[in-house]
Design brief:
Elements: H1 10-21, H2 24-47, E1 50-54, E2 70-71, E3 74-75, H3 84-90, E4 96-103, E5 109-116, H4 121-135
Antiparallel strand pairs: 1-5, 2-3, 4-5
Amino acid sequence: MERQPDAVKADIAWNVEVGRALTGREVTRAVAEMTRLQRAADHFFDRYDVLLSPVAQLPPFDAESTWPHEVAGSPMTNYLDWMASCYLITALGVPAMSVPAGFTPDGLPVGVQIVTRARHESRLLGVAAAFEEATGYATRTPPLLTSA
């Protein structure tokens, strides 16, 4: 970032600066919290084989927008907030896969995130394949928008 600041998006530069500002104590606390979350995920997967969750909190948005600044009436304070459904799963350290799950009334694609226990990637792949086969969404494409 120091050598080529113009090559880094402002949102990424912000993210790096936030990380650089963390103290050792804050990082240690975050690692401890991540470990607690990972243990909670292990306990969850003692009862359930998979977790299904939204891939994103909203359907696809205009490509001209850098990121959604509001989701369901709630303001997003930074570029990460709108994708919490993904980064929260990432923090668990478990495998996850997004698969097509349908379309909005306007024909925009939406997905579902399939999540399973750490080191159970083969289960994840099997469930994802079964989901795609059962729904048929993986073979459908949204209608292309045409300009008038």
